[in-house]
Structures are given as C-alpha cells and as structure tokens.
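Deliverable D5.2: sample structural annotation.
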Amino acid sequence: MLSEHRPTRRSILKAVGGIAAATALGGASILAGASSAGAAEDGSGLRVKEHNEDDPRMWYYRFQTDAIGWDIGPAVNVLLPDDYHTSGRTYPVLYLFHGGAEDFRSWDRTMEGGIRAYTAGQPLIVVMPDGGAAGWYSNPVSSNVGPRNWETFHIDQLIPWIEANFRTYAEQEGRAVGGFSMGGFGALKYAAKYPDRFASVSAHSGPPSLRGDLGAVAHWANLSSAAKDLAGGTIYGEPWDEAKVSADNPMEHLETYRDKRVFLVAGTSPDPTDPFGWGNETEVLRGQREFKGALDGAGIHYEAYEDGGGHWVRPDRARQDIEGIVDRLRKA
C-alpha cells in the first residue's frame, strides 16, 4: 500500500498540468511512470494490473477487484481532453457505458471516428469501463461463475479511483452518465439509484422500463445474463426479486430525474443485423415513449429524438449529446 506521505497520481497530474507545452512530452513520460505506484491499493478497492498511457488522449487500465471475479480483470479506457497535459485545469467527467456483447473499447469503434471524434476539442474526460457482455450494470441475484458485481465496481470503486487519479470535479455537477443499449439502461438506472452522483444522463437506444410489455427487458436481462455472463445465474432471479426490479427500474423513480439533464434517442425501425437480439428497435422506442409520457406527466424536462433506422449509435446525436453534457456540467 502506498504511504500516505507519498504523492498521489492526482497530485502529480496537478503539478505537471501547469508546465509549458514545450515540456509536455516529458511530463507525459513522468505520468506514465507514476502509474506503477498507482498499481497499489488507494482505498478504491482496485489494483491496476496493466496500463498503457502512450496515447496522449486514450489511457487504458485493467484492474483486479473482488467485485468482478475475472482472472483477466475488468478494464477501462479513459479519454482525456486535448489540452489535459498542459492546461492544469480540472474537468467534468462523462461515464459512458457500452451495450450488450460489447466491451470497454466499443465507443472507440463506433461510426465516424467514434468517441475521439465526438469529443474533439471538448473540455471533458470520458471514462469507458467494462460492464460485462450481459452484465446489465447490476449486481446479479445469482452467479455460477463467481462475483460479477458490476454496480459495485462502477459506483463504489471506479468513480473514487478516477477522482483520486485524475483532475476531476468530485461532485454531482461534475459528473454525467450515458450509454448505448444495455449501457443506456445502465445510465438511466445509475442516475435514478444514485441521484446525487450525476447531473446529466443519456440513453442512446437504451430501454428505460423493466416492467413494460409484460417485463420484456427484465426477462431479456435474465436470459442474456444467464447465457453470456453467469452460466445460468440471473440478474433478477426466477421468479423475480421484485424489490430489486423496482429498485433498478427507471420508470419507478421519475422524481430522481427532476433538475437533471435527460437526453434520449431511439430508432424507429427494426435492425435485423443486430446479433444480440435487439433486432426490434421498436421495443426500445415503445419504452422510451412510455418514459417520456411519464416524465411529461410529472412535469420533468427532457430532450428526446426519434430517428429512422435501427439499433446503433448515431454519430450526430452523440456529438449533440456531448455538447449538451459540456454545457450542463461544471466548466473546466
């Protein structure tokens, strides 16, 4: 464990942040070396197993944690602003989640340059963690493969680790959460369960209702997690753990979205090429329409779009979302 008298990565970053552009490359080298010290426990419950900080913007870490029983461990990409190494500024953070059958690299592989292009020139840190092929951003009711407690990893471990190691605002007004598909559900869920953590929430083709259409999304969470992640275990149990379903269901926590920025996108037609079973994007669309109607009824403001096409990330909406996040959060 690091001595409390040794400098933390965050203190090193703050010190390096003020150096001139002429010595920025040397500073980046210092930071890369500092991550070896960061491999020790820092109170977050995470231990860095691997890291790569060679890219000026996209830094990679893989962790060991008791929350996730993978031998390889869960990973995260941290996308830094263009001027992070030279500005000395503190930045807001977007926690951005991938969809089912994807991983922490997915947002870097989407259309038209991916997340690097969507955030070019924006004063925003983007944190993109693993969430399991079908982890549903939850601690499952049962698992036959050891712990897969994604909610614990993201909320109790990753956020504190990021805030200890990067120049971020450790407050609600400094954090946004968003995602695609399963990750959009995870974003809506976390914003509702932890309302003091995030000031903005975005769901790109993300379902907001677990109980709609006779519980279609909750059933799909159980089926997909049993097949892909938990070797027959389930997120919500069979029969359902009704208290857990209610706790995780965005539709049952409308008031938590009041005064937040809420951004929703859904396609209006099926996508027959989707390999993960969301061929009918209209299921997401129905859920988002139900959610919007409930928000309207409660007098809660949101921003929502329905675009032609199926179940995929729309680059123009992703850029629009990023701009809205930067505008809503505390400024760098």
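Annotation notes: Confidence is low (pLDDT under 50) at residues 1-40. The domain at 9-328 is CATH 3.40.50.1820 (Rossmann fold).
The annotation will be released with the project's public dataset once the embargo ends.
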